[in-house]
Amino acid sequence: MSRKTGVSPRFRERFRGDVELTDLPDHALLGVIRIPGQHSASPWGLLARRFSYAIILLVVTALAVYVHKGGYSEEMSFIDSLYYAAVSLSTTGYGDIAPVTQSARLVNIFLITPLRVLFLMLLVGTTLSVLTEDSRKSLQIQRWRKNMRNHTIIIGFGTKGRSAVDALIADGLSPSKIVVIDSDPQALARAESEGLVAVNGNGTKSDVLKIAGVTRAKSVVVATSSDDTAVLVTLSVRELAPQVMIVASVRENENQHLLRQSGADSVVISSETAGRLLGLATVTPTVVEMMEDLLSPDEGFAVSERHITDDEVGANPRHLADIVLGVVRSGELYRIDSPEAETVEPGDRLLYIRYTTENFERPEA
């Protein structure tokens, strides 16, 4: 069922950029979309490195000419040798200095001519490398925008966003199916280094969300640092993608209903959850330790969800081998103590406690 948030055109206009990113060609999005694997030296660094190689070739040629300075039409100083090397390697060839002895001509044939070819390859290759690198990145962006489907978008790559990504990856989601939206260059660089597609922009703007493929996404995690921004992001996402699942984080409990009204399917109250854990830690610290264990997918125990097997249909979930916490039926969660969870029906999913194979081994029968 689609949701209507009643967002006015004036609201949309407020968060629209001067230039719509969706109207730009793919090559204009090189600074907006960062695909993992695009790490490369900057064009200026590439030019500087190859220019250094060209200078080395020039000096080597000048030394070779200076060693055979007696074989040329003019009396050669090192400056003359450097001059001759420069006009020879650049194919300028003024003709004012020319090799006249057999040895000098052999040096030109077997040393200076190959160096001239290498010198030209460096100059031409640098230009082609810069141009083809941008073309390759543009092609990657074009392919990604065309093929990305059923991915998860993380809006805000701070502490909450990174933790959400860690949980998704630990639960089996490929990093290539995660897209991060943030405006902090350091956060974007970190996301890219972790194999995530990074989009530079503000999550409240519709064109940034469209660039991230929100209309084709499976879910969106709103992990912004402030509650008001979370509300605006949720409104924007829900308007563009009525069917997408939105999970939002809010700091204060009093703002939870705003996220719900904005279209969030699930709201996590970060400050209240942390406060409860702090309170429990003063009374029963072992409970907090176990809760942290359950919330850490890579360590010890973890709360997970799975499909039921054919032989589990009709069984009481309390009697299954796994420790079942609840039954998910038609998108609704029923706790293990509810009447609806007395028996397992076809199509149900089980919310259960599992332990990771990395840290624990099942005892042999």
Architecture overview:
The chain has about 375 residues and is α/β, with parallel strands linked by helices. It has three domains: about 10-35 and about 150-275, Rossmann fold (3-Layer(aba) Sandwich); about 45-145, Helix Hairpins (Orthogonal Bundle); about 300-355, Regulator of K+ conductance, C-terminal domain (Alpha-Beta Plaits). It has eleven helices and eleven strands. It has helices spanning about 10-15, 45-65, 80-90, 100-145, 160-170, 185-195, 205-210, 225-240, 255-260, 270-285, 285-295; strands at about 35, 150-155, 180, 195-200, 220, 245-250, 265-270, 300-305, 325-330, 330-335, 350-355. A seven-stranded mixed β-sheet has the order 1-4-3-2-5-6-7, sandwiched between helices. Strands 8-11-9-10 form a four-stranded antiparallel β-sheet. A hairpin with a 2-residue loop joins β9 (about 325-330) and β10. α2 runs antiparallel to α4.
Number of domains: 3
Q: Helix/strand/pairing class, anyone?
A: alpha/beta
Distance N terminus to C terminus?
48 Å
Unreliable spans: 358-365
Given the C-alpha coordinates, what overall shape results? elongated
Helix content: 40-55%
Largest sheet report? 7 strands, mixed
**Which CATH class of the largest domain applies here?**
Alpha Beta
Classify the fold: give the CATH topology of the largest domain: Rossmann fold
Share of residues in strands: 5-15%
Quantity of strands, as a count: 11
Strand order of the largest sheet: 1-4-3-2-5-6-7
Radius of gyration, taken over Cα atoms and rounded to an integer in Å: 32 Å
Q: Say which CATH homologous superfamily of the largest domain is assigned.
A: NAD(P)-binding Rossmann-like Domain
Compute the average pLDDT. 79
CATH architecture of the largest domain: 3-Layer(aba) Sandwich
Task: Give the topology string: H per helix, E per strand.
Answer: HEHHHEHEHEHEHEHEHHEEEE
The helix tally amounts to: 11
GO biological process, one term: monoatomic ion transmembrane transport
Membrane topology: Multi-pass membrane protein
Keywords: Ion channel, Ion transport, Membrane, Transmembrane, Transmembrane helix, Transport
InterPro entries: K_chnl_dom (IPR013099), NAD(P)-bd_dom_sf (IPR036291), RCK_N (IPR003148), Trk_Ktr_HKT_K-transport (IPR050721)
